[in-house]
Design brief:
- The protein is of the alpha+beta class and about 400 residues long.
- Helices cover about 25% and strands about 25% of the residues.
- The chain has helices at about 20-30, 40-45, 45-50, 65-70, 70-80, 95-100, 125-140, 210-225, 260-265, 270-280, 320-325, 360-370, and strands at about 35, 55-60, 90, 110, 120-125, 150-155, 160-165, 170-175, 180, 185, 190, 195-200, 235-240, 245-255, 270, 290, 295-305, 330-335, 335-340, 345, 350-360.
Length: about 400
């Protein structure tokens, strides 16, 4: 039976960390499908709880969500299944970390094992920095229990790309590649963030989709089936392609991701909700959507004062309606709220995702930035080089 897309839209306050409350809400709404966005509830087992109550849910079970919840788990699965990935070591003490770091020819990347909200990764420029990063995680507990185990891996130089597939655990539908811009500042400078913008499809990747499917997606899904935890949902592969054209798996996310989701949806035509429902049921119906090849998209994230460190909230936002009125523009809300007077204000670090779509990436980028410049709030900052020449060779 087709899902009812005519139901009115409304927001209901609920603590996403309270699984019982989410299940109760879904049952009270007689929900036909629950699409889970954030990683923390997935890793906590929200899909398991929904399914146990007979509610169809799009997203992996708690066991399958370990692909994102534990970087060590992912790396070990990649090693077992022959998935190309950087050489790595796992450490739980500083003695183990120092010994592991000493085995690399150049400064390695240091990653906290668990969820860190898009942070917890240090691309060290020196061995001393790598040791300091390990100490911050293992000794100082900068990321709490998420950093009680760390992954130390070889740094691979190349072009990064996000490659997502909607899957029922066996079959999958590949989505266009996207290129995220993680650092807070222009020229890829400053600390990592959850994403300051993205372009889709990613230009000049240097590797074809079929190869990434064959070497990354297929063996990952097979490995999860073998582990007794079939993966249903969106399998998000963070990939780096070296100069020789070899794709290496950097990470898996177990959700659409942000801001990739906003960009990708602009390239999907058809009944996306029913597509996700079919994957959740274990019977993916790829005929429900068409992946457009005649459209490109660009997303520019508008961030709050202080992001990604000490974020200030409560600043009034203006200009969103004007931006939304531009052709080919959609402004997506993330860290926003309405005050008692009905004024729109900031309520988080990444406030708005301004999405432009057009037949070419250059046009999509122009639309996104024209819209972004119409929006104002005190302390607003965004990168001005999303999809620029340095990113589109």
């Amino acid at each position: 039976m087709p899902l009812d897309h005519t139901a009115s839209l409304r927001r209901v306050p609920v603590d996403l960390g309270d699984i019982d409350a989410v299940v109760k809400l879904a049952r009270s709404l007689d929900a036909e499908l629950v699409i889970v966005g954030p990683e923390a509830p997935l890793c906590a087992g929200i899909v398991d709880a929904l399914l146990a109550e007979g509610v169809n849910a799009f997203g992996p079970t708690r066991e399958a969500a370990r692909l994102e919840g534990s970087k060590a788990y992912l790396k070990e699965l990649a090693a077992r299944r022959g998935i190309p990935t950087a050489r790595f070591s796992v450490a739980r003490t500083m003695d183990e970390a120092r010994a592991a770091i000493a085995t690399f020819a150049s400064p390695p990347v240091v990653k906290a094992d668990g969820l860190c909200g898009g942070k917890g990764v240090v691309v060290a420029e020196s061995f001393d920095e790598a040791i300091a990063a390990a100490s911050s995680m293992l000794v100082d507990r900068a990321f709490g229990e998420a950093g009680a185990t760390i992954v130390i891996e070889e740094r691979i130089v190349g072009k990064e790309v996000s490659f997502l597939a909607v899957t029922d655990g066996t079959e999958w539908l590949s989505l266009p590649t996207a290129r995220d811009h993680k650092r807070v500042g222009n020229g890829d400078q400053g600390p990592n963030t959850g994403g300051m913008g993205v372009v889709c499809p990613a230009p000049a990747v240097g590797v074809d989709v079929e190869r990434m499917e064959r070497e990354i997606i297929e063996p990952t899904l097979a490995g999860m089936r073998e582990a007794g935890a079939p993966f249903r949902g969106v399998l998000f592969a963070g990939v780096i392609v070296d100069a020789a054209g070899t794709p290496y798996l950097l990470e898996h996310n177990v959700r659409f991701g942000d801001p990739e989701c906003e960009a990708l949806l602009e390239l999907l035509e058809g009944d996306v909700t029913s597509l996700l429902a079919s994957a959740a049921r274990g019977a993916l119906d790829k005929s429900l959507v068409r992946v457009r090849t005649d459209v490109a998209s660009c997303v520019v994230v508008l961030a709050a004062h202080g992001y990604p460190s000490d974020v200030r909230i409560g600043d009034e936002i203006t200009g969103v309606d004007r931006a939304n009125a531009l052709p080919g523009v959609q402004v997506h809300h993330a860290g926003t709220m309405l005050d008692p007077e009905g004024k729109l204000r900031t309520s988080g670090g990444r406030v708005l995702a301004v999405t432009g779509s057009a037949p070419t990436l250059a046009e999509a980028r122009d639309r996104a930035y024209r819209a972004a410049h119409l929006i104002h709030f005190e302390g607003c900052h965004f990168r001005t080089d999303i999809g620029g020449p340095a990113w589109t060779p």
